[in-house]
Every structure is written in structure tokens, then in C-alpha cells.
Amino acid sequence: xxxxxxxxxxxxxxxxxxxxxxxxxxxxxxxxxxxxxxxxxxxxxxxxxxxxxxxxxxxxxxxxxxxxxxxxxxxxxxxxxxxxxxxxxxxxxxxxxxxxxxxxxxxxxxxxxxxxxxxxxxxxxxxxxxxxxxxxxxxxxxxxxxxxxxxxxxxxxxxxxxxxxxxxxxxxxxxxxxxxxxxxxxxxxxxxxxxxxxxxxxxxxxxxxxxxxxxxxxxxxxxxxxxxxxxxxxxxxxxxxxxxxxxxxxxxxxxxxxxxxxxxxxxxxxxxxxxxxxxxxxxxxxxxxxxxxxxxxxxxxxxxxxxxxxxxxxxxxxxxxxxxxxxxxxxxxxxxxxxxxxxxxxxxxxxxxxxxxxxx
Length: 360
What we know:
alpha/beta; Rossmann fold; Glutathione S-transferase Yfyf (Class Pi), Chain A, domain 2; six-stranded antiparallel β-sheet; six-stranded mixed β-sheet; 15 strands; globular; ATP-binding; cytoplasm
């Protein structure tokens, strides 16, 4: 699949924009704070329904305006049109081929996108929340049922944690939230476990290729609740076991919101003991695996957004990344690009961006 065209109305620093893209490589050139990443963000929200930069949709509305609208035309077997609008009250409207979507999950299987930014290069060494977000973002795209389970789990967790802060706790009411958490949390654990096993296998192959067979990458799922055959009952029992501590701490201490990924290179935990080079190579392996997994699960090549990431990679890793993406539409933001990278990328369309406008 690939994106053909985008139309913006009052999105970030873009008043209006209508631009057609190349099906191979599109490079957005310009100085910092001119709107390059804003344009990538507008593409991204048509896939996930939200930003990769902020949790507040209203922040994407152009200053002084009442709403923003993004409309994208893509090709996936046939032409596909996705439109998203958000107003100052935070109300979001989504249309797919002109038909209003009742739920966000109806958007998730339409346009597949992988984002790769300098922040993603730190995913290995950063806090567990970043690695959980990586898993969630990927699984929500390829498994809409996961999005539903995750959404329901988060709502139940929010309500349980709010109740744990009450001066008096009725354990019968707490049982209701425990049942909800066990129901949806157990499903999340099972889906994450299956995903990480596939991710580990693919990442290992890619990592060996990047390091010329010198390093073997292994990825392990670290759930805060032990994996077992009856995951739902195990989850519920753990909540019962930890109830007194949760009441004392006024928060839920076990569940998918506490999970992590363990990454090892040649048996060494590279989250804590890996060099910067090892950590960045592992992050690159994860991202390329993400692309392959989407292709395997959906039959579609996702669109890749490279947000100022080439400058963060050395020439060898740049070359490997580019060689791996011959069938993938790529959008690149950068202040400058090397001649060697240009020669490796194939057909390119350039867009010079200045103050929210494409000037050539």
C-alpha cells in the first residue's frame, strides 16, 4: 500500500495544504520548527487515530482556529480515503471512504504505518513504559481485538485505582474491578506473549545481518503476572493476593501496565549493560521487524515514517535500513541528506518546507 495525497485544514502550523506524494520515497527538507514533523504526524493519525507526539488531540488544532481536518487518499488493492476532524471540545469524527466510523477500531485496519524517530532509538535503554507502548502500537494495528481488550483494561484499571484512593474500601466492589481486570488483562498477556515470540524470531535474523553474524539478539516477554494455562484465574488470584498491598499503596501493582521486554545480545541484558551502539542496533532490528510483522499478518507493506532519524544512524546502519525497504513507501524528514543516501533510495520526490508551507 502507499499514500497518494493528503489535504490539511488548520492542522498545527498548516493553514491549508493539498499535496501529492511519490509511491517510493518522499523527503521533507527544511530547518527545525518549520512543520516537517507536523506533516508526518498528520499522516500518522490517519492510521492510529491519534498522534505519536501528544495525547491531547486539541493541541494539533492551528492556533486560533476551531478545528482541524486531515484527509488522506491511499491505495490498498483499491483507492481508500480516510478523513479525521477534531474540534476544540475534543470531539473526533472519522470517515472511511465517506462512511462515518462509529469506533476507532474501524480505522485501525485501514492504513498501516510504522514511525521511526530518534526517540525510538532509545527504546532499549529507556523505561519499560516505552517498550510497552511499542508492543501496544504494533498489536493495535494488526489485531483490532487487542485494541478493544487494551481499551477495556485501561478503563477498568483507572476505575480500580480511583476506588483504591477512597477513604473506605468495600471489598465486594473491588471484586467487580478485579474480575474486569482479570478478564481483559489475561487476554492482553496472551496476545503479547504470542507477539513477542514472533518479534524475537524476526529481530534475531535481522540483528545477525546488521552485525555480520557477530551478535545474536533475543527478546523475552516479562509479564508481571506469570504465564500459565488458565491466565484469567491466575490474574484474579494475583489481584486477591496483592489486595492488602494495593489498598495500602492506593494503586494496582500487578498487571499488563507493569510488563516489560528483556533484550539480550549474546546473553547480555543490553537494557542496562549494552553499549549505545548495541542499543541502537537492537532498536533498528525492532523497527525492521515491525515492518515485516505487519506484512506477514496483513499482506500489506506498511508506510514508513522516518522522523529525522537518518542523522542519528551511522552510514553502515543507514545503508542497511535503506536496503531493507525496497518495497516500502518512505517519508523522511531531515535538514539535509547525504549524497550516498540519495543514491541508495531510488526514485525521490523532494518537498522544501518553510513555516507550514511547501515552497517547491
